[in-house]
Amino acid sequence: MRAIKHLAALALFAGVIWAQSPSEPPRLVEGLQKFHAGDLRGAETSFRAVLAAADNVTARAFLALSLAGTGRCEEAVPELRAQASNAPDAEVRRLTGLALLDCDTRAGRFAEAFRDAGSLKSMNPADADTLYETARLYNRAWNETLRELFERAPASFRVNQLSAEIFESQANYTAAITEYRKAIAKSPATIGMHYRLGRAILMQSHAPEAMTEARREFDAELQLNTSDAAAEYEVAEILIAQQHPEEAAARLEKAIQSDPEFPEALIALARLRSTAGRNGEAIPLLERAVKLAPRSQSARMSLMLAYRKAGRLEDAKAQKEALEKLVAPPGGEFSDFLKRLGEKNP
For 32-44, b where at least 16 C-beta lie within 10 A, e where not — what string? Predict the structure, then answer.
């Protein structure tokens, strides 16, 4: 299987075992040499010969890896599962765990695959192969679940919702709005749907009529869930755009009351307070926002300006330095990769 073959560490590790174990049976060394060279069928023959003479944990592990690598997962899985849990060598556990994850993912055994991924990540949280194979698992499970949804419940409001979300991700807001409206017509009391529709309307346009339409949806969401901080925040942003700062501030206070750890609402309320000449009230709000979201450029910029207004120049300087670090372009290979793609650095 390609997923097994692309694990370069697999073949490299075969060479490590060979180099470290000169006293191993000759057929085992032969098998590891073939495995290292990518001859998985030849390696299988050698490993089977070793095991015919006597049990050998290394031969069992690499026989299972060879079987998985040549598409015979069902035969390999029992030994892979045993080795991934109990092999004495950590690298053997990692390699057999990766092969097991690949086999379970390909077979659609997602419950087992998620357990495999969890075990691997607990042992190797920063391992690139583990993270890559886990990402493949999530992608495969997502696609399979979507297929089942469209096949088994094609008339459900969830299909319309999902279609809307896909259109939204493609910036096709007209189609997204249409699908959200269909979903709401089928299930008007579903939490979150009016909010998503309101956001799609605003993403399509910030014209006055669009903001009025979007606000109706956010208010409809609040009728269903009076403690929806995100909907309150969106209404407040519309009120700010419509130059109703006092009403906006009241909405933001409600949003913060519902969700005290909502940095965007804290920043927006602080800006209203500062504009109204109440800088002393703005600073504590912004300090909370920075504590909650230390990488927020908006929070740090607003706090820096508020400190300057208050004459706290050293505090303002500290925020300026922190902000400069945030906006500095990242270095390293990933930054270079983005440059080659022609993308802006995050």
Answer: bbbbbeeebebbb
Exposure class string for 133-163: b at 16+ Cβ within 10 A, else e = bbebbeeebeeeeeeeeeeeeeeebebbbbb
Rama region for 262: left / alpha / beta (φ>0; ψ in -120 to 50; rest): beta
Do residues 212 and 255 share a domain? yes
Q: Across residues 51-70, what is the average pLDDT? A: 94
- Domain holding 103, by residue range, is 2-150
Which of residues 150, 178, 203 is at a domain's end? Answer: 150
105 in the same domain as 182: no
Contacts of 136 (CB under 8 A, 6+ apart): 3, 105
pTM for the whole structure: 0.72
- Both 144 and 51 in a single domain? yes
Answer with the one of 134, 150, 166 that is the final residue of a domain.
150
Together in a domain, 130 and 162? no
A 10 A CB-CB count for 229 gives 20
Residue 344: both structure tokens together:
């802006």
Answer whether 95's CB lies under 8 Å from 7's CB: yes
Q: Which amino acid makes up residue 125? A: P
pLDDT surpasses 80 at 115: yes
Q: How many CB atoms lie within 10 A of CB 53?
A: 11
Mean residue pLDDT of the chain comes to 89
Among 97, 79, 74, residue whose Cα is nearest residue 4: 97
Claim to verify: residue 298 and residue 197 sit in the same structural domain = yes
